[in-house]
Every structure is written in C-alpha cells, then in structure tokens.
Amino acid sequence: MIEFRDFSYRYPTAAADSLSSLSLQIPRGQFCAVVGANGAGKSTFCFAASGFIPHFFRGEAHGSVELAGKPLAEAEFGSLAAEVGIVFQNPFNQISGARFTVREEIAFGLENLGVERGEMQTRIQLALEVVDLVDVAERSPFELSGGQQQRVALASMFAMRPQVLVLDEPTSQLDPRGTREVFRAIAALSEAGTTIILAGHKLEWLAEFADRAILLDQGRVIADGDPDTIFAMETMGEVGVGRTQFTDVAAAAQRAGMLKDHAALPVTLAQAEAFFS
Amino acid sequence: MNIDIRSVSFRYPSGQLALDNVSLSISKGETLALIGENGAGKTTLVKQMNALLRPTNGRVDVGEWDVAEHSTAQMARRVSFLFQNPDDQLFARRVWDEVAFGPRNLSLSEPEIEQRVNRALDRVGLLDKAESHPYDLQYTDRKLIALAATLAMEAPILVLDEPTIGQDARQRERVASILQELAAQHRTILLVSHDLDFCARTAERVVVMAEGRILADGPTEQVLAENEILDQAAVIAPQLMRLSQALKLSPPKLRVDDFVDAYASRKARPT
C-alpha cells in the first residue's frame, strides 16, 4: 500500500505548493487514475509516489509518503527503483541511450539490479511480448517511432517487476491501437497484483480499466472515487480537464430537455448507447 | 498556394520504404488531417513538403516551387512546421527569442518581429512566459511555445505534427480555436494526429495512411465512417462517430451540437 499522510510539496523557487495536504491510501493491486488539468499536480503526484520527491527534486516537503509503512524519504533511492517503477511523459527523456538495441535497453535496468542472466532473458522476452516489440528487439531505440519508444520505456519498467508502477501519461505519443495495447498490458499487470498509478487525459481508457480516479486541482484532491462517477462530474469541465464526448453529448441533450434527468451521465460508449436508447 | 505531391516514394538510408508512390493534392485553405498508426509514413510525408526530407522518386510542388530546387530555409517561408517533439525544435534560452528565431531569419524589421512574436505568444496563452527558459516549462507548454514559433512565421501553409499531445481540455480548445482562425484566413493546415476526436471537429478532409500508402482520402464524415479502412490503418474512430453508428444516426455527427440537434430531430419524427 502507498499512503500519503498530510503531504505537501513545493518545488525550489516556486511561489506555491504543487501538492497541498494530501491524505490518501492506495491499496496494493489497485489501478488508480490521477486526472487534472495540466499544472494541477499530476506529475508532482507521480514524483512523490515514486520517491523522486524528495530524492531527486529538493524543494520543501511536509508530511510523508509511505510504501508498506516505510517513508519513501528514508528509503535508499537506488533500491527504491526495484520497488517503484516510473514511466515518464516523454519517452525521449527516459531511454538511457547507454545501449545499442531495444533488448539491451531493457536489460540496462535489470543489470543495475543485479538480476541473474537466465532470469534476465526471461523477463526481457516477456516484457517485449507484453508491449509488442519483439519484432524490433534488435533495433536501436532511437530508430523507432515515438510510440514505439514509449513502449520501450514501459517494457524497461515492466521487466524490473516493481510492486508499484507509476505512469505519467504513458500513452501520449501512441496511436489509438498502441494506446489500447498499452492499457491492456497495464491492466494485465494490475491484475497480477502490481499497484498502478496512472496520470493521464485519456478518460475513455481510464474509465474502462481503472478501479479508482483521483481528481486534482491546484495541488489538492477535489474528488476521489469510482471513475465512472468522477469522470461524469461537471467539475471535470470547470477545472479544465474536460469529459468524454459521450458525457458531453449526453449532458447537452439533457440540458436541451431531450432526456429525463438520468441518475448518471455516461462516460463510455456502452453507457452512452444505453443512455440514448 | 496549392500543394501537389506526385508519385512520391521515400526510402530511409536503412532501406525501409516509408512512402510508396504517394500522390496527393491539397488546395489552398484546406484543413486536412493525416491519420494512421505510428510508422504509417505521415511524418515522412509532411517532411517532403519543406525539404526536410527529399523524395527518392517523384516530385513535390508547393505553389509554383518545385521543392527539389529549394532549401528547407527557403521552404520555411511557405511551409511552417510544428514538430512532434518540441524538444527537436526549441533551442533558445528565452521563450521570446525562441519564437523570434524564425521571423528573424525572414529578415523582417525589428518592430514587425516584435509584433509577430507577441501576437503568437498571446495566441497560445503564454505571453506571460516570454522571459522564461523553455526548459523551465512543462512539456505541453513547450509544445505550445513551438506552436507559437510556427504561427509567428505567418506562412500560408502550416504543418502541425501532433499539436494536442498531452494537452488538457482547455489547451485543446485553444488549439482548436487557433486552427479555426487560421482556416478563416484561408491558410492551409496539415494536421498529423492520433487525436481523432480533435481531427473530427477541426478537419474538413481526412487522409488515412498505412504502410507508406494512402488508404482513403475524402470528407471527414465519410472517411471516419469507413470502419474497415480505419481498422486496417489501426485507427479507432472518434467517440461521436462510434456513438452515431451505435445509434444508427445517419449521416453521423462529429460535433456535440450537431449530434444533439440530429438526435433531437430524429426523436421528434414519428416512428
């Protein structure tokens, strides 16, 4: 379990807190979506959940973030990488470039963990299969498209087998099919017991796969609950996140008095179909 | 100024054939979205239009210019380019200088440069960041800075490679309104995007690519209704197209207001 205990954080030289008084628990194995407008604190949340705050970013932190009861601030950062993996927004920043091929790139993290060779091959192969990169395993990551590079970054993390995987917009560079594959891969990891914290804007996918959604605005949690409920809220629009077009058309139809006030606005296609039928 | 791409093929030095005999004509003032999966050849195609890449075979004309006879710097007067990764594009230490770089190379007067830079930064909503270092900004803001730099060229043709990556609703709304404004000025816009919901509401024409070829080309509502072609191109139809199809709303409606109107008139009809 990851627990934020009255946690606040301010970047060095920043005038305001990027996260303010967060208190929440994310149980082991939960798939938790973090949504909010850009600048609301999603990336900072990811850094705090993975120990990059305070180990990498200095700034000013209050309260604590704990993994299985131990504050991340007190953990040794090097060994934390084996427990909490993070995939960044921009894959171009993540690929080490220290290796020549995709296979070697994925091996890089495992070598640093001292994983035994046979075990390493098994894990790399599985990671390549999960993100569908077997065909390009012997190519340079830098020759790949943005979407493929993003999957290389994901595979590198999958292979480390962390307890918690923190993903900051892991599909932003991907095409729709790539997005679906990555979401399915993430969901499979979640079912296998990995805790997933995923910050992003792709509400349709998050509604399908996430167990829970946390809505951030100006560094605070303003809603926390079932994704279908949170994503349909009017607040989503007010804080600049927006809603799916399924929700937008349903809300517009309701406003125009075309449909009775349903208890819940739809978020997904299946829900919208039921709503309008 | 029209763009005329005739039988263009392109092979990367690795031997990979990225464009396979592509022909495409784009008229002045069109807003066209190029869609298809990663690696389909979309970015390779648009890079032919300003000589960032040169065709292995075939010919590209922009207006009366044969691109083969012009440098990328010359082409920049006609075709202004927003790269997929803003970090390929940004290098100045100050946002303002970054946006001024292109106009400076057009040998404009200093007041004209100043006006263009301020206007472009204001348009993307980042005028208050003019003095910042681009790398102190978030990724999505860097993308908007790169967009401002593209706008400041005031070229007749704009190529926007994934302008909405990672953006939230407000930022996408802003980009959509910038596109509308450019379209109203009869600028030609080539949008390369995986954000089909965004393409559906901003583009009037859609070209679907797969494996270096054009699979479909036509009005947005028609092309995005071709499920088999979209499937072949690994593209998932926009949300309102899928909902239109699920509810058998014909013709499909891709904008929220149009959808609601069409649904209302259908409900009003006796069945």
Can you lay out the helices and strands and say which pair or pack?
The complex is a heterodimer of chains A (277) and B (271).
Chain A: E1 2-10, E2 19-26, E3 31-35, H1 42-49, H2 52-55, E4 60-67, E5 70-71, H3 77-80, E6 84-87, H4 102-113, H5 117-130, H6 146-159, E7 164-168, H7 176-191, E8 195-199, H8 203-209, E9 212-217, E10 220-225, H9 227-232, H10 235-238, H11 245-255, H12 269-276
Parallel strand pairs in A: 3-8, 3-9, 6-7, 7-8
Antiparallel strand pairs in A: 1-2, 1-4, 4-5, 9-10
Chain B: E1 3-11, E2 17-26, E3 31-35, H1 42-47, E4 57-62, E5 65-66, H2 72-75, E6 79-82, H3 95-105, H4 110-123, H5 139-152, E7 157-161, H6 169-184, E8 188-192, H7 196-202, E9 205-210, E10 213-219, H8 220-223, H9 227-232, H10 239-246, H11 256-268
Parallel strand pairs in B: 3-8, 3-9, 6-7, 7-8
Antiparallel strand pairs in B: 1-2, 1-4, 4-5, 9-10
Helix pairs in contact in B: 3-4, 3-5, 4-5
Q: How would you describe this structure in keywords?
A:
heterodimer; A: 277 residues; alpha/beta; 4-stranded antiparallel β-sheet; 12 helices; 39% helix; globular; B: 271 residues; 6-stranded mixed β-sheet; 11 helices; 38% helix
